[in-house]
Design a protein that fits this description.
Elements (H helix, E strand, L loop, with lengths): L1 H19 L5 E4 L5 E6 L5 E8 L13 H8 L12 H7 L3 E6 L4 E8 L3 H13 L5 H20 L6 H9 L13 H6 L2 H11 L5 E7 L3 H12 L22 E7 L6 E9 L4 H14 L5 H9 L3 E9 L4 E10 L5 H17 L4 H18 L3 H13 L6 H11 L2 H11 L5 E8 L5
Parallel strand pairs: 2-6, 7-11
Antiparallel strand pairs: 1-2, 3-5, 3-6, 4-5, 8-10, 8-11, 9-10
């Protein structure tokens, strides 16, 4: 009876959370093509203003890589009405915080303010879009900033070149083959005219989504958005026609070296359908099953029971055009990389030949239900999700129905996806080794 009561209480709690997390929002478009999403949450006097631009590392001339990441920094320099360096002073002076980040697919800027500073947040983002100052002083300043970031986060960081190696090994023609941060020689060679042309092409209202979330009034917010953003001129529509990758049908072996490591790594990387596909959701569940948490299959086997690995992980990296699914492990002691790969492959084969247990399946569903609840537990998280689902998935309503997609995935779906995508002849195997002095 106690167990039944506990189960009933748990189901009621889950139902309550799922209902409580339903995100209400309103949408509208300005004449210049800017899509606007508003979400009202008056539980705390906080508001977030954010803009996501449909531009990332994959966009632009391949002899000028890294422009999107560069602009993440450059567009904080100032505008016609904001002095150089003042952008980052105005926000904290008004009780706010801010940040920005860039992926291969998009660039995201946001500010979090007390709700009585809503108008300030909208003005700042409109200034960034309307007339930022892009001059040689700003370009030179941010060039040094980006170079220092590259040194700290990539060149001099253990395993800092891993993502670069995976991208170069897994993609031959698609621009995902290039690092998001770009090549420094490309930034050094770029002219001011090239930077301005890049801005005019990608940082336009019809290539962006504005999200305003938090302690707002819908009518007032809509009026303010029109006031600050209607003057921004529509740009030309961005047309993308990236080359398609040929499917991998034979195992590709790669050896790479890193001067910053002492322990080698083994990576098996697969190129898979993009993040908006149903199969990508299934592979999310597979990666979680394999390595999410101490009780996961690979961690329990390789780290706890057999003590063969210092670390092991399976990840499904979401991207618009192609996802990257990767198995990664660091050996413990004298364990060989070949042994680690064979042990990981053994678990993949089990997935291909057997259905996972009902118990493990329920654990997976519970994990993704918790992730769904947590992702919608803050105004900042909701704003980011609204922008992402609209711009990169083409359906803002995913914020409320994503959990149903995961719930619809069966144990048979998991088995079929493992068979379809995770065979050795469909991957790149990378031995990532310490670099010796003579190399």
């Amino acid at each position: 009876m106690k167990k039944s009561l506990f189960t009933l209480a748990l189901l009621l709690l889950v139902g309550f959370h799922s209902n409580a997390q339903k995100v209400e929002f309103q949408e509208f478009d300005l004449d210049n093509g800017l899509h606007v999403i508003m979400h009202q949450d008056n539980t705390a006097p906080v508001v977030i203003t954010s803009v996501m631009y449909d531009v990332g590392g994959k966009d632009g001339d391949r002899e000028r890589t890294g422009f999107a990441h560069f602009f993440e920094h450059l567009l904080f320099e100032g505008s016609e009405n904001i002095g150089r360096g003042e952008f980052m002073k105005i926000i904290p002076a008004n009780g706010g915080t801010f940040n920005a980040n860039t992926s291969q697919d998009r660039t995201y800027y946001y500010e979090i303010f007390p709700s009585n500073k809503l108008e300030l947040g909208l003005w700042l983002e409109s200034e960034r879009m309307l007339h930022p100052v892009i001059d040689q002083v700003g370009v030179d300043t941010q060039n040094e900033v980006v170079k220092e970031e590259k040194r700290q986060s990539y060149d001099n960081r253990p395993y800092g070149g891993l993502i670069k190696t995976i991208g170069e090994s897994l993609f031959e023609v698609h621009p995902y083959k290039d690092e998001n941060i770009g090549k420094m020689e490309h930034l050094d060679a770029a002219t001011l005219e090239e930077f301005n042309a890049y801005f005019k092409k990608y940082y336009v209202p019809n290539n962006a989504v504005l999200v305003v979330a938090g302690d707002i009034d819908y009518d007032k917010t809509k009026k303010l958005v029109k006031e600050y953003f209607s003057a921004v001129k529509r740009g030309p529509d961005v047309v993308r026609d990236f080359p398609k990758e040929t499917p991998i049908t034979e195992t590709k072996k790669v050896t790479a070296y890193d001067k910053n490591i002492q322990v080698p790594a083994i990576i098996a990387a697969y190129r898979l359908p993009g993040q908006a596909t149903r199969d990508a959701y299934v592979l999310d569940m597979i990666s979680s099953y394999l390595s999410d948490g101490k009780s996961s299959v690979l961690q329990k086997k390789l780290m706890d029971e057999q003590k063969q690995a210092l670390a092991v992980q399976a990840v499904n990296i979401g991207q618009v055009d192609y996802n990257i699914f990767a198995l990664f492990a660091l050996p413990l002691g004298d364990v060989s990389l070949e042994t680690l790969l064979a042990e990981m492959d053994e678990e993949i084969v089990k997935l291909q030949n057997e259905l996972i247990s009902e118990r493990d399946y329920e654990k997976l569903l519970n994990k993704f239900e918790n992730q769904f609840v947590n992702s919608n537990s803050s105004v900042a998280g909701i704003a980011s999700s609204l922008a992402t689902y609209y711009l990169l998935y083409g359906d803002v309503n995913i914020i409320n129905n994503q959990l149903e997609t995961y719930r619809s995935i069966t144990r048979e779906d998991i088995q079929q996806a493992a068979k379809k995508y995770l065979s050795p002849n469909q991957r790149v195997e990378i031995e990532y080794l310490p670099k010796k002095d003579e190399q």
